[in-house]
Structures are given as structure tokens and as C-alpha cells.
Amino acid sequence: MMWKLLICFILNVSCSHRADGIYLKNEVAVINEFESITECVITLSGLLNMSPTFTILKQKDEDNKENEFIEQLVRSLAKHNTPQAILEDVTDHDEDSHDLYINSLTVVFFGSCEEAIQFDYKNVNKIKYLIVISDPTSNDCGKILKAIKETVGEFDVTFIIQDFSSDINKIYTIFPYKDINTCEMVHKLTHINTCINSTLETQEVFPMKTPTNYNKCPLRVGMATLFPFSTIKDHNSLKSYDPLEESQIKGSDLEMLKVISKHFNASLELHYINRSEENPYVDTELLKFLFNDSLDICAGGLYRIYGDVVAYSGIYSRQDVLWIYYGQRSERSWENLIRKMYSSYIFIIFYFTYSIIWYFICLFDGNSVSFTNTLLYGWGGLVGATSIQEPRSAKQKVINIMYLILCVFLSVFVSIQLYSYLTIQVPPQLFKTNDEVMESGRVAFLKPITKYFNRDEKYLKFADKSQDCSSFMDCSNKTIQYNGLTIVLQSYFYIIQAMTTVDDEARILRASENVLTVFNEMLIRKNSSLVVKIQKIIPRLFEGGITRKQFIEAIGLSVVDKAGIANANTITNSYSCQAGCKITLKQIAGAFHIWLFGCGLSCFFFVIEVLSKRKIKTI
After folding, report:
1. Which of 53, 324, 484, 497 has its CA at a distance of 20 to 30 angstroms from the CA of residue 20?
2. Cα dihedral sign for 23, 28, 31, 37?
3. Which neighbouring-strand residues pair with 508?
């Protein structure tokens, strides 16, 4: 168990041990020796972002000086109503004790500088340690503490050294920094604060230890490939960890790394890392370069899929995974015109109804009438080619008036349909939801190794019926060729839509609903001193829209604009004549062709009739 001995836990209660009668009157002066430094400890804790529980680490039962310090600290904490716990050690990492020490300030007392050096600091990770040193025999404890160096250089360990010659307690910590000559990480003991009569000179207690100045030393970065985050020239001929020049790389991740390197005053040392773009789960080779400290950062459109073995930068890009499909506008044809006139069948029904009723009314009135003539005159009236039969009774007049109204409505209906057919182009078939896409009856083209990324049952059944393709671009080309469907990342959609525009209109469209949304993050070596600082820089760039701007620029501003304009034109041009527009002679040329054909046919019959009469006269 991590806490081998829990001596006492006090919450707003004084653990004074008065009942034991340990302390005599002549010992009060000795205890007061630590009153000043314990008050400094309490003042120092007030600068933390939390109200910590004090964890007092008791190391030796027989050490009177340590016992005296702890007793005085307990009294001071009780006076300030501060919770506290006295423990023997914090060596184990059981989950029950994790939350206790992670939200506490661990205070350790040493009676000499040498004892502080010999202390085991291996468990200081994530724990805030305040090391109190009271050594009246040492004039310069700071020099002795330099021996600790990198042991605690990257962790929250602060030393407060009691000065017996004056009531001035100096506060130190150890900072890591890049040596300008060797570019190695070195550590330096630094005086950060001073406590005089329980008053601190500055607000520094546990300062951030991420080195902010690399002195132009390199950040070692591994670059994978994924458009538009990172595209590397001739990357197929490279092996993992091959060196790269900036001129070989294009993409938004490189621009972001330049921002980071500028912040740290560092240079970039770039290396290629091999990673499958379309199925990143199968490649974990890049992790070994982080584990063996060969790389500090890995970038290139990576995802948070590697668990907690590495640290992550935070989200800097978000893009959709979506269905795209071929959207071709219907062309003008006789077939489409007939389909548009389909509703006119209702007028045919009324035409036959009128003819039958007219015929029986005439019979009832005793008028001789031919049913064939009734059909011919009724049709002539319906299409406006001739007048209908003359009525002879009131009943016939009423039915003729109703039928003439119907003929007017048919004329209006046909005129509107012809006008809209010749002037207004409806948009292509549009899909809003993923269900509409999968129920459209179109064939999907998907990569075999990646198409089962979505575990939705309906999607899996649809994916089973899909046809294979080899890459995003191959799937897109087959989608266009066979009027099909495919799934792509949003960045590829912009490219494909811009490439396939016809007359400034989009031919590749997307479903309004996303299949899913993916988030991109950089990987950072877990034990790197850069982690905390980068995790603050990246979210700020993301929230400020900087990374989105870099993403769009990497795709191409003209490409994204062209795709957006083409997509808008597809809808706008579909209804551009709602307010009215002209019908050109070219659009109604078919009517003139039919009329000329009729004139020609009449002339043909006229010639035949003339020739036949001449032949009869000759005989």
C-alpha cells in the first residue's frame, strides 16, 4: 500500500497532541524557531489555484528536529483551518491514494542539505513537493542542491531554505533549458522567490518549467502524409526517419509547426514517417521514434488513436466524412416533356366523359348524332383546333359551357408546363440524410479495407453491397462514371467538386448529413517538456481560426471558392427564371419543324391529288 502509515488526518481540527504532555514550557522557544518558515509555507500555499490538503511526509520517528517542525506546522495549519494528513511515504501508486496526493501539497522537512540530496525523488511526477531545508551549519545550501539537477528539473518541486542569520527564507526551483552550444537539455537551480516575515516578494511558487527558448536548437518532428495537412514530394521512395527539407513538404501542419518553432525560438529538424493515409490504425511504427526519444513531435493529419502511451497536442483541425454522389441535371427531351405532361391524363378522362354525356343527351332530345363526330368535335375543342357541336337545348348549352371552361384550363396547364420546361431547369436529385443516400438505389464505390469503419447496422448492410475501388480518387472517378456514391474526407470533396464543374455548376454533390466528424491532433513524446506548453498553444490557434485558415490555404483558396460557387450555382441556376424570362425561338424550334412538316405533307397530298385527276381526264 502506498500510504504505509496514516498517522492522522485533520480537517479543520488541531492535531496538537496536548493530551500527551510531550511539550514542556522550556521547549516553546525551540518550536518557535520554525514559526516563521511554517507561516511562509502557509502563505505560499495560498498562491496555488486550489486549496490543497497538506500532506506532511514524516520520515524518521526519532528525528526530534523533524518532529518539532511537523508539530509547529500542524499548529499553524489548524489555526488557519487547513486540512492536513501526516504520512510515512508516497512510494506506491495505488488508485485509492492517487486523488489524495494529486490534489495536495506534499511538504518534506530536512535538517540538512545533504539529506535533501539523498531523498528519493523518483515519485515526484504529478505531485507538488515543497522541500523545507533547515540547516544552520551550511552557509550556501544552494550550491549543494545543484547536485539534484535533472532529477526534478521537469517536475513541481520547490525548495524553501531557512536562513538562520536573518528572518529571510529563500525559495528555489530547478529549471530545464537548452544549452546553446550542445543543444542538450541542462538544468539550473534558480532563485524564484523570497519570504520575509511570511510575506512573499513575488507570486512565483511552482512556475511552469517548459523551456521557452531553444536557442535555435532543433525540434525533431516526424511528418506523415495526408492531404492537405502534409504532402511530401516523392514520399513513396522514402523510408521512415529519412531526413526531409522544408522545400519537400507542403501543407497546413508544416505552417503550424513553423508557428510553434517560432514560439520556442527553435529550428525544425524534419523526418519522414510512414503511415497509411486511409487506414491509420494498422501503422504504429511511428510510435517507436517517440519512445526512443528520436522525435519530439509527430504531425501530418494524425488522430487520437494511440491511447495514453503518447501525449496529444489538442485538436487543431476538424473535418467531415461524408457521402458524395454524381448530380447531373436532367436534359430537355421528349421523354422528359411527356413525363412533365403526365398529369394531363385527367383532361382526357373529362374529354371522354363529356363525349358520352353529350351523345346520350342528344339521343334523349331526339337529335340525330354520330358518336364518332362527337369524339372528333370534342377533341378539336379540347386542343383548340375546332369548335364543338352546336347546342340545341338548355342541357346541351350547360354541358358545353362547362367543357369550354375545361378546355381553357387545359390550355393554361399546357402553356405553364411548356413555359417551365423551356425556361426552368430543376436541380439534380438532392440527398439530405444518410438514409436517403442509402435508399437511393445507386451503387456505392468503397475501399474494401476501410469501408467497415462505421458499425451502424444499416450502413454495414449497405456496405456489403458496394463495389470495390482502390483509392479516394478512384472511388470518385467511378462515382462520376457510373452515377454512383462514395465516401470521402471533406478536403478531398473540395478538390473533386472543383475539378468536375461543368458550365460553373457542380456535378459532384454531398449529402447534408455527415457520416461522422474526425479531429486531428499531433503526437508528442510523453516525457517531453514541450507537452504542457504545446497543449496551450494549439487550442488557442484552433479557437482563433488560425488552423482553419491554414487548412483552407493548403487546399487552395481558389479551389475552395470554385467548389463553393459551383455548388451555389447548381441551385441558383435551377430557379433563375422564377420571376419570368424569355422563351427563345431556338427553344420552340420543334413547333416550327412540326408545322413545316405538316405543310410539306399537305403539299405532297395536293400534288398526288392533281396528278390523279389529270390521269382520270386522259383516260
Report:
1. 53
2. positive
3. 326
Is residue 273 a contact partner of residue 285, using CB atoms and an 8 Å limit? yes
**What is the model's pLDDT at position 322?**
93
Q: What are phi and psi of 276, to 5 degrees?
A: -65, 125
Give CA separation, 47 vs 43, 109, 162, in Å: 7, 20, 20
User: Do 271 and 389 fall within a single domain?
Assistant: no
Q: Which CATH number covers residue 120?
A: 3.40.50
Q: Are residues 37 and 175 in the same domain?
A: yes
| Residues 6+ positions from 104 with CB-CB distance below 8 Å | 52, 53, 54, 55, 85, 127, 128
As a whole number of angstroms, the distance between CA 103 and CA 49 comes to: 11
The pLDDT assigned to 211 comes to 82
Query: What gap in Å lies between CA 618 and CA 615, rounded to an integer?
Result: 5
Task: Based on the fold, state whether residues 86 and 147 are members of the same structural domain.
Answer: yes
* Residue 253: closest CA among 523, 522, 532, 495: 522
Query: Do both 416 and 442 map to the same domain?
Result: no
Is the same domain home to 19 and 122? yes
For residue 533, give the C-alpha cell: 506548453
**Same-domain pairing of 261 and 116:** no
Judgement on whether residues 296 and 373 belong to the same structural domain of the protein: no
Cis before residue 228, ω within 30 degrees of 0?
yes
The confidence score (pLDDT) of residue 16 equals 38
pLDDT in the model for residue 391: 79
Instruction: Mark the ranges of the chain whose per-residue pLDDT is less than 70.
Output: 1-32, 50, 61-62, 89-102, 122-123, 125-126, 138-139, 142, 149-151, 165, 330-336, 340, 342, 423-426, 573-596, 598-599, 602, 614-619
Q: What angle do CA 322, 327, 331 make, to 5 degrees?
A: 175
Strands 311-312 and 445-446: unpaired
Half-sphere exposure of 275 (CA within 13 A, CB side): 28
Is 599 inside any structural domain?
no
Q: Where are the alpha helices (DSSP H) in 424-544?
A: 434-438, 457-464, 472-481, 490-499, 531-543
Q: In this structure, are 32 and 121 located in the same domain?
A: yes
**CA dihedral over 368, 371, 374, 376, signed as positive or negative:** negative
Could you tell me the pTM of the whole model?
Answer: 0.69
The total number of structural domains that make up the chain: 4
Domain that holds residue 144: 6-200
Q: Tell me if 587 is assigned to some domain.
A: no
